[in-house]
Amino acid sequence: MKKQHLAVLAALIIVLIALVFFTLQSEKNDGGNNTNTTTETSNKTETNKNDDTDEQAGDEEEVVSVDYEKSYAQKCSTCHGGDLTGGVGPELTQIGAKMSKEEIEQIILDGIGIMPGGQLKGEEASAVAEWLADMK
């Protein structure tokens, strides 16, 4: 009976250590100094939308801009690594050679295995999927 209590205690300690580790990794990836020197236009996806149903509005355009690298850093890098090399989740450095943008987006939306779905939604999920699909 005493051995069972020790096993449960050991498991709880391991879970606590893992939780602290992932929290620190998340804070490290979310804040701090970003040494990435890519230009603003190279790490954003822009979508132009025209509303043809409103003739009176003229040619107004709505530009939706998604910073996919920031989205990845905030929602994905804890498990997949800040450099896409993996960790708890699989590496993504060459995911585009294995899956299409649509397959990647479906996994982002629905999840797979231990990965929860819905961390990214809509344009954000689509932009990250497009970016990852280019990883070949």
Automatic annotation (TrEMBL):
Span list, region Disordered: 29-62
PTMs per UniProt: Binds 1 heme c group covalently per subunit.
Keyword terms: Electron transport, Heme, Iron, Metal-binding, Transport
SUPFAM superfamilies: Cytochrome c (SSF46626)
Gene3D superfamilies linked: Cytochrome c-like domain (1.10.760.10)
Residues bound to heme c: C76, C79, H80, M115
Extent of Acidic residues compositional bias: 52-62
A Pfam family of this chain: Cytochrome_CBB3
GO molecular-function term, one example from the UniProt record: electron transfer activity
Domain Cytochrome c: 53-136
GO cellular component: membrane
Low complexity: bias regions: 31-45
Cross-referenced InterPro entries: Cyt_c-like_dom (IPR009056), Cyt_c-like_dom_sf (IPR036909), Cyt_c_BACSU-c550-type (IPR012218), Cytochrome_c550/c551-like (IPR051811)
Protein's recorded name: Cytochrome c domain-containing protein
